[in-house]
Amino acid sequence: MSAMTAQEIQEIALKARADFPILNQDVNGKPLVYLDSAASSQKPQQVIDAMTAYYHSDNANVHRGAHILGDRATAAFEGARDKVKSYLNAPAREQIIWTKGTTEAMNLVAHGLTPQIEAGDEIIVTRMEHHANIVPWQMLAERTGAVIKVWEINEHGELLMDQLDELLNPNTKLLCFTHVSNVLGTINPANEIIAKAKSVNALTVLDGAQATPHFAVDVQDLDCDFYAFSSHKIFGPTGIGVLYGKRDLLEAMPPYQGGGEMIERVSFEGTTYNQLPYKFEAGTPAIGEAVGLGTAIDYIQSLDREALDAHEAALMAHAIKLIETIPGMSMIGTAENKVPVMSFKIEGLHPSDIGMLLDQQGIGIRTGHHCAMPLMEKFGLPGCARASFAFYNTHEEVDQLFAALAKIQRMFA
Amino acid sequence: MTSPSLESFKSNPLGSETTIEDIYDAFEFLDDWEERYGYIIDLGKSLPEFPESERTEDNYVHGCQSQVWLIHKFDADTNKLYLMIDSDAIIVKGLAAIVLVTLNAKTPQEIIDLDVEAAFEKIDLMRHISPTRGNGLRAMLELIKKAAAENS
Known about the structure:
The complex is a heterodimer. By secondary structure, chain A is an alpha/beta fold. Helices cover 39% and strands 16% of the residues of chain A. Chain A folds into 2 domains: 6-44 and 304-412, Aspartate Aminotransferase, domain 1 (Alpha-Beta Complex); 48-301, Aspartate Aminotransferase, domain 2, CATH 3.40.640. Chain A has 14 helices and 17 strands. In chain A, the strands form 5 sheets. A 7-stranded mixed sheet of chain A has the order 4-10-9-8-7-5-6, sandwiched between helices. In chain A, strands 13-14-17-16 form a 4-stranded antiparallel sheet, with helices on one face. Chain A is globular, with a radius of gyration of 22 Å. Chain A starts with 5 loop residues before the first helix and ends with a helix. In chain B, 47% of the residues lie in helices and 12% in strands. Chain B has 8 helices and 3 strands, in the order αααβββααααα. Chain B has a 3-stranded antiparallel sheet. The longest helix of chain B is centred in the middle third of the chain and has 14 residues, at 90-103. Chain B is globular and about 40 Å long. The mean pLDDT of chain B is 86.
């Protein structure tokens, strides 16, 4: 890393930016500044082209056609699964289940584990979770009589590691936590947490939606039981996501939905289910989207990740330095180890007003509760504004954000 | 809980003294987005005070990005529906002021017949009340139309 200059890093990032055609446009008469990648990332031309080519030349249903297009579609679809397997370093392709996204993956696991959970069992969920990693467990608890235990955070937005030792006990069946917080940007010490969970034989379920866009994940190194992420946050299309699970757990879980594809044999006397991964993939899957996600993974792997990580870190450092130029502005989530996500508040300004007036200046951020109401409650906020950076953002865009914030502050003065 | 008196509802000049024509006139002199939003901010700040005791779950308008409250009172004597709106976000309050100018102190039939979208379209604020915006304005309008229908 030390060999690369700041200028070389920026050149690599700019070259990658050129792959994203959507960024090159004006909105409200100003150049678009897209700072909402944590909500959904933009897609490189490579992904758009791959999906177009699929529909242009190869489209058919998978696993059933007695024809060449069916073969091609199946090869592309299953090829994408292999790419995800390698990307996560999963032991086997059968452990990669397609879902609609992280949310569906969590619901699938919560449904699948229901027979194993009993009244009085404990499920640990952290304060910083997205609703997608809270509500499915609450529903599971309602079904089974299990109890939800909340793992709290400190004022920087870091999990209280000491508290985990107190929470974990022989009744703990599940520990559900996000690898990276969508609001705070905190990167949680996943290996350490998983090791602690194992000491009481609790299963671990990780929300990887915000981690996978920023760094490589190795599920064997983590040794987690389940890991989920969404395609649209890692430069792939919407409508598809991934659930990785340990094989014996996936084998033991009942199917999630019934229908075609997930069966081996159907009769009115009784139906037997297909093997992994198809047992969990009822109905015609999102084939074109799988192709797009596979291409997104190829794309990410083609990039100089080290340089782009350094670029993202530099963008974040640049933004943090500019915070003091806006009186009353403060960042929410000041963990030492974090991805380039800047949630913030400005005294006297409502996040909704900030969002609307940034939009007028061509700058797109997210405002509101960020699907993390328990976290907002902890910080005593009805909501906040969040600027999130990807490697395709530039230092000039960070400057534009702060110039726009200064202008907004003047408008309210 | 007693709701605010009819008098306090009636004291709101928006929709009675101030009309949508006044808003149109003001917008005509505003050149760019900054001035237009500056005006909306001023409108928001000038919104009559909303009783603290009415900021309840019952009066809460479920939007997404900001908190909005709405109360209304029908005056059978004058056959008019009176409205009060509040939000914790100033621009939403400003947009609410424009809603009030359009719909406050009108007869239920007038409210039902009024094309609020057209008014917003004219001052280029349509996107704020489009269904794709999660700011609660749309829900606000639906509640007002519903209240009008119940009293017509």
